Amino acid sequence: MKKVRAFTWHTIILTLTCLAMLFFYGQVMGYAHFFSTIMKTAHDLLLNTVFFIMAICVLAGSLGGFMTEFGILALLNRLLAPLIRVLWGLPGAASIGALSTFISDNPAIITLARDENFIKYFKPYQRPALTNFGTSFGMGLIVVAFMMSLGFFRESMLGLLGALCGSIVSTRLMLWHTARTMGTAWDNSGHQELDESDLLNYRLIRDGNRMSRLLESLLDGGKNGLEIGIQIIPGVLIICTMVLMMTFDAGAAGYNGSAYQGIPILSTLGSLLAIPLDLLFGFSASDAIAFPITALGAVGAALALVPHFLGLGAIGGNEIAVFTAIGMCWSGFLSTHIAMMDVMGYRQLTTKAISFQTVGGLCAGVLAHYLFALCS
Question: Domain spans of the chain?
């Protein structure tokens, strides 16, 4: 937190913009219907979407806790470490960060990055890239599990592959930039290239017998998943309500204050970009542009759009693959990148990190589309 003036000319412009939007929506929809639609859309999202996502978060968190406690995650670390070195250009220890964020969320990488026993394996120029690397895996298990729960197993796997490739693009671009500006040598603190055996060969476990460890790992993991599920509620209800009211119109019934009505601003924008959207992502409906726009700020809110799109027949298997890739690779990075880079001490590189993450997400979506087309 920092102290600033009570209000500036930015405040005045923002106030006038909000009043103009209120007037615009009120004139088109009717003020009573406008506020009724806001409340009913948020209420329906909470009951029919948020609790569904929260249940998936709890189950995914429970699975993650089980895998960590009984060494499955450690086995995956060992298997993935060589790939991390070759494909991402990071030390094998980074595999721990990938798996940690995959079963939780982007900020999990911060905890590791501030741990001296972890960060010592990274050269100075590699450390800022951990933000891009970790973000590309953030909420991955939840995104993939959500798409699978809707009946799209193959599509979610193709999207996961696209997200991994987008992660490589984002991380490699960041490493290319930091290598140019910071150099590739170790710093002057006496670090030498270190053996990663401690991180890859040893793990901490709970006290007690196997049954008590099993129950504790499942329940503690589920509790962590519940915390993630609770944290996404504001994003879903606020951002998703706004996006939906900029995506769909009144329908045949006309404006009557029911949920999911609005003014199709994003759909109009999507129709203007129909050719590039079809070429890059294969979107069959302009409404689908709402998902990547929402995923920039909150992937949980973006997931909440999917059931409604499916119900309207606006999307199919191709869009699910693209949504999975973009949703996982971006992971709402606009809402976390600034804080993450600031905490890690690389505030000056925030703009570059955001730019490269944007490119990585777009590449992920494009690859997922063409993989789907190839496999169809």
Answer: 37-182+196-375
The pair of three-digit structure tokens given for residue 303, joined into one six-digit string? 């997931």
DSSP conformational letter for 349: G
With H, G, I as helix, E, B as strand and everything else as coil, classify residue 174. helix
- Please say whether the beta carbons of 315 and 353 come within 8 A: no
How many beta carbons lie within 10 A of that of residue 318, not counting itself? 22
pLDDT tens sequence across 308-362: 899 888 899 999 999 999 999 998 888 778 778 887 888 899 899 999 999 999 9
User: In whole angstroms, what is the distance from residue 244 CA to residue 50 CA?
Assistant: 15
- Residue 221 falls in which region: left (phi positive, over 0), alpha (psi -120 to 50) or beta: alpha
Query: In this structure, what token pair is assigned to residue 247?
Result: 């995506």
CA–centroid distance for 149 within its chain: 18
Q: How far apart are CA 199 and CA 117, in angstroms?
A: 9
> What is the C-alpha to C-alpha distance for residues 364 and 180, in angstroms, rounded to an integer?
25
pLDDT tens-digit profile of 206-253? 888 889 999 998 998 888 888 878 887 887 888 888 888 888 888 778
Q: Are 89 and 171 in contact (CB under 8 A)?
A: yes
Q: Are 324 and 162 in contact (CB under 8 A)?
A: yes
State how far the Cα of 251 lies from the Cα of 29, in Å rounded to an integer.
12
What pTM value is reported for the model? Answer: 0.83
Alpha helices in 105-152 (DSSP H): 108-113, 116-119, 129-135, 140-149
